[in-house]
């Protein structure tokens, strides 16, 4: 019987519970399908610290090698380290991780040579079709000569590449607390930060895919409480948290207050525009703060608004020749990193910006954090389309109000905006609101939530 992959093949990746939803035999078929769809002679594979990752990764390698493809295994790595390997070696790549999901999950993030994303419309649908067919009719015909499987360590090269993209020569001594959440940041941070004038206070650097201290998802405020407390206790200059596969970076200022990813996007955008002579396109998704396009314009750049999701950001980066892109979820994309996302490079920019002047991080970021935002608020809703229609009906006839449908529903005025968009995988509506002051934002937020939850 053919495997049902509808629950594990998502829009941008493969993700599910191991071994209930997928296992090593399926991983082997995914490896063969990846080899066939990319048509590559060689691929590169890496994995995170989850207990199931080494076995799944090796099974995928066997599947690709059976079809005659040479495999380079880089072993334990962060997702952006895998993107580095894909770019530097010019090979399609596969990363075994479930990012911030709980321990029983695992997944595969796949890319073509040069870290170009593989999603539903760029090969993932074909990969799924092949795997489903082979799971019913038997494994694919092996090549006459199988490919080789070799090991290669890319950590030092990855770190050197990142440090070469940021001027770190004038960084003053800083005390920084880093919460790796028992994820891959514990593996990469010591090498990337080596040689910088940092008093590094490590938290949860032990690689442990069971996440004994807290979920490796810093987007949830509950998971940065330990970091905030430690920053205050240590009198540190800042705190940095990474998610499980260390491709996202979250920042806490010297007071222990969480910094909006939009403020980091605006800060990095200004620095990247300066690197490119005050010219360039910067991508931001439609729920980043008004601050982002304002700062981009003030620094000579051209802001481009896009849908939420890395496949849309990366596609727009490539189409427009953008130099940088940022999302509310703390994904940061760089043209100099093959248009791929790397939280570690964003962290280096923050360290360089803070260390290049004498003031505290809160003062530095004030110019980039100009409005009151709600953050993302999720509501469980049985009838997503019905609730969206009710919101549209409530606002479409109001004076001075603009509605657009780029991604869900966005309603804007000169003083505030909000966006409501449905989850692709759960019965949720996600609300983000922003206004010129906290009182107005709270009023708009509560008004919209009342309609969503009616």
Automatic annotation (TrEMBL):
Family to which the UniProt record says this protein belongs: Belongs to the phosphohexose mutase family.
Gene3D superfamilies: Alpha-D-Glucose-1,6-Bisphosphate, subunit A, domain 3, Alpha-D-phosphohexomutase, C-terminal domain
Protein name listed in UniProt: Phosphomannomutase/phosphoglucomutase
Keyword vocabulary terms for this entry: Isomerase, Magnesium, Metal-binding, Phosphoprotein
Co-factor requirement: Mg(2+)
A Pfam family hit: PGM_PMM_IV
Domain annotation Alpha-D-phosphohexomutase C-terminal: ranges: 376-449
Domain Alpha-D-phosphohexomutase alpha/beta/alpha: start-end pairs: 8-133, 156-256, 263-371
InterPro entries named among the record's database cross-references: A-D-PHexomutase_a/b/a-I, A-D-PHexomutase_a/b/a-I/II/III, A-D-PHexomutase_a/b/a-II, A-D-PHexomutase_a/b/a-III, A-D-PHexomutase_C, A-D-PHexomutase_C_sf, Alpha-D-phosphohexomutase_SF
């Amino acid at each position: 019987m053919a495997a049902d992959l509808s629950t594990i093949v998502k829009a941008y990746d493969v993700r599910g519970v191991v071994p209930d939803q997928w296992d090593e035999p399926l991983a082997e078929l995914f490896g063969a399908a990846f080899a066939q769809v990319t048509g590559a002679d060689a691929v590169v594979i890496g994995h995170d610290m989850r207990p199931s990752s080494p076995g799944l990764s090796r099974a995928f390698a066997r599947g690709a090698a059976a079809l005659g493809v040479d495999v380079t295994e880089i072993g334990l790595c962060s997702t952006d380290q895998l993107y580095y390997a894909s770019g530097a070696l010019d090979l399609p790549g596969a990363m075994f991780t479930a990012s911030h999901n709980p321990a029983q999950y695992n997944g595969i993030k796949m890319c073509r040579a040069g870290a170009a994303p593989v999603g539903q419309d760029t090969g993932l649908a074909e990969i799924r079709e092949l795997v489903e067919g082979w799971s019913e009719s038997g494994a694919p015909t092996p090549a006459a000569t199988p490919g080789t499987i070799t090991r290669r360590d890319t950590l030092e090269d990855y770190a050197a590449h990142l440090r070469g993209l940021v001027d770190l020569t004038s960084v003053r001594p800083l005390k920084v607390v880093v919460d790796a959440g028992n994820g891959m940041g514990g593996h990469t941070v010591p090498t990337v930060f080596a040689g910088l004038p940092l008093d590094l206070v490590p938290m949860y650097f032990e690689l442990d895919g069971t996440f004994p201290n807290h979920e490796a998802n810093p987007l949830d405020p509950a998971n940065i409480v330990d970091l905030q407390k430690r920053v205050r206790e240590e009198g540190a200059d800042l705190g940095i948290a990474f998610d499980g596969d260390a491709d996202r970076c979250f920042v806490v200022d010297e007071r222990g207050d969480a910094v909006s990813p939009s403020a980091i996007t605006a800060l990095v955008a200004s620095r990247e525009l300066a690197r490119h002579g005050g010219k360039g396109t910067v991508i931001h998704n439609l729920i980043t703060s008004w601050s982002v396009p304002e700062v981009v314009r003030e620094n000579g750049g051209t802001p481009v608004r896009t849908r939420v999701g890395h496949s849309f950001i990366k596609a727009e980066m490539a189409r427009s020749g953008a130099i940088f892109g940022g999302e509310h979820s703390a994904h940061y994309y760089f043209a100099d990193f093959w248009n791929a996302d790397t939280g570690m490079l964003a962290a280096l920019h923050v360290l360089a910006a803070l260390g290049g002047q004498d003031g505290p991080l809160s003062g530095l970021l004030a110019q980039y954090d100009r409005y009151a935002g709600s953050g993302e608020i999720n509501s469980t809703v049985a009838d997503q389309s019905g609730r969206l229609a009710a919101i549209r009906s409530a606002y479409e006839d109001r004076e001075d109000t603009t509605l657009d449908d780029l991604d869900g529903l966005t309603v804007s005025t000169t003083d505030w905006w909000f966006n409501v968009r449905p989850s692709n995988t759960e019965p949720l509506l996600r609300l983000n609101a922003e206004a010129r002051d906290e009182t107005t934002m709270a009023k708009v937020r509560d008004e919209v939530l009342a309609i969503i939850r009616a």
